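Bumping my old thread because nobody answered last time. Still need a sequence for this structure:
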């Protein structure tokens, strides 16, 4: 398998070089040169596979022989041995016709662990095999940072710096990042939003000379390995339901701010997974929902919400979807992204909007609607939703009538967002791994949200 850039000036890149490149050197995002196809017969053969066995089969489609199968199997087994559930990402019945796909059984209780445990081990493998220097730079709206740090903390040959928006993540998210005291970890709390952090990251990676001099590697979902790892749980959810006798196509309701999680579902569908509908759930930062309904991609005013990991205005994976929406026309994508950079918005024609609405439904969940959904399901089913999952469930309730089966992605354990849970009068018990964080000292530096300030700090950390 080779990888190409959405902007057309990078091609013929192997898998390992793709994960090391992160952001394509022409400023675009890497995608597979072709999307492998999975037949109905193959899906049937995969029905009894464990999560790890399924991940091995799917990763092989995108890696080929570049990593020997036995070594890839070991990487997969090591990555998912840290999960607390034997199924890794189990599907639970919430009510008739609605299931939740629990993605929070990894070490930091968030869905990001599914991809980042694998990517962390993959980086360690590449460092050992090739002698590559691995200096990871990432930005987080809360969960990516903790998962990425957990994936590489203490590992020889790897250093990691994570930016998070100061005061705009939950307390547990902050503690999961900043109580880590390994010498290869640097936490920077920036005076700005996640979008500021994400912009800084992309612009530093786009400075190809700086990127190569300091051996910068990406941990955010601009890294194609993140997307590929997330396709696995869409397949596994479908196969779990198939084992129960659910044979019809499945719809998925996906809380998303950066378009990575739902793009993985879109990719799974393009590979041949029988997906009925992909429901895109956002919060009041609703740029993606407005794009689906109106065909206009334009950031609005930033809003702090009860689902802070989705408090995002500029979705870094959106460009990958544009590439497929425009028939893999890299010149068209380049023009659109240049327009967005210059004018701050993209408007697509009606025929493209029709295609978008065939791919996705969307609902922007208001703050009170999010809280009401948490309270309703705890009262009626005894199941406690975190606020991001609640957005996915609320969107499913609004848009999924008539679907035979719908799976809402549960992206985090509710203990990570107790501030929101308390607002509906619910008291919860914390897992011991989380409650113990409150006793630990924090290790974090405050920083201006500027390229210059971050670049200077990176020079001293990575040199």
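Sorry it took so long. Here it is:
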């Amino acid at each position: 398998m080779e990888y190409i850039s959405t902007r057309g000036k990078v091609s013929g890149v192997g898998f390992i070089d793709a994960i090391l490149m992160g952001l394509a050197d022409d400023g675009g995002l890497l995608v597979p040169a072709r999307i492998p196809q999975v037949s109905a017969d193959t899906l049937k053969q995969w029905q009894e596979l464990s999560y790890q066995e399924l991940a091995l089969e799917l990763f092989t489609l995108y890696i080929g022989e570049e990593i020997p199968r036995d070594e890839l199997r070991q990487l997969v087994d090591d990555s998912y041995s840290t999960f607390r559930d034997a199924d890794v990402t189990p599907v639970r019945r919430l009510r008739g016709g609605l299931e939740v796909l629990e993605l929070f059984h990894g070490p930091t209780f968030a869905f990001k662990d599914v991809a980042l445990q694998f990517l962390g081990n993959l980086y360690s493998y590449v460092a050992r095999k090739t002698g590559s220097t691995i200096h990871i730079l990432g930005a987080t709206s809360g969960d990516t940072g903790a998962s990425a740090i957990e994936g590489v903390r203490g590992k020889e040959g790897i250093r990691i710096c994570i930016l998070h928006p100061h005061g705009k993540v939950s307390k547990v998210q902050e503690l999961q990042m900043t109580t880590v005291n390994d010498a290869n970890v640097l936490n920077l709390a920036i005076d700005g939003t996640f979008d500021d952090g994400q912009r800084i990251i992309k612009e530093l990676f786009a400075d190809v000379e700086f990127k190569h001099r300091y051996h910068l590697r990406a941990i955010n979902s601009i890294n194609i390995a993140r997307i590929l790892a997330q396709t696995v749980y869409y397949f596994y959810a479908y196969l779990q339901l198939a084992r129960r006798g659910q044979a019809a196509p499945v719809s998925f309701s996906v809380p998303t701010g950066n378009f990575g999680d739902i793009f993985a579902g879109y990719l799974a569908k393009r590979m041949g997974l029988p997906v009925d509908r992909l429901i895109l759930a956002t919060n009041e930062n609703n740029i993606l929902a407005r794009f689906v309904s109106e065909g206009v991609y334009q950031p609005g005013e930033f809003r702090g919400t009860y689902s802070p990991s989705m408090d995002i205005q500029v979705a870094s994976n959106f460009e990958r979807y544009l590439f497929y929406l425009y028939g893999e026309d890299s010149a068209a994508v380049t023009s659109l992204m240049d327009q967005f950079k210059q004018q701050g918005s993209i408007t697509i024609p009606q025929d493209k909007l029709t295609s978008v609405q065939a791919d996705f439904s969307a609902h922007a969940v208001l703050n009170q609607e999010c809280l009401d959904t948490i309270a309703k399901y705890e009262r009626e089913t005894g199941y406690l939703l975190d606020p991001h999952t609640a957005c996915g469930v609320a969107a499913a309730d609004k848009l999924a009538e008539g679907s035979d089966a719908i799976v809402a992605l549960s992206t985090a354990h509710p203990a990570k967002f107790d501030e929101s849970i308390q607002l509906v009068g619910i008291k919860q018990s914390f897992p011991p791994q989380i409650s113990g964080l409150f006793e630990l000292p924090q290790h974090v530096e405050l920083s201006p949200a500027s390229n210059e300030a971050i670049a200077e700090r990176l020079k001293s950390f990575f040199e």
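The chain has 20 helices and 15 strands. Let me know if any region looks off to you.
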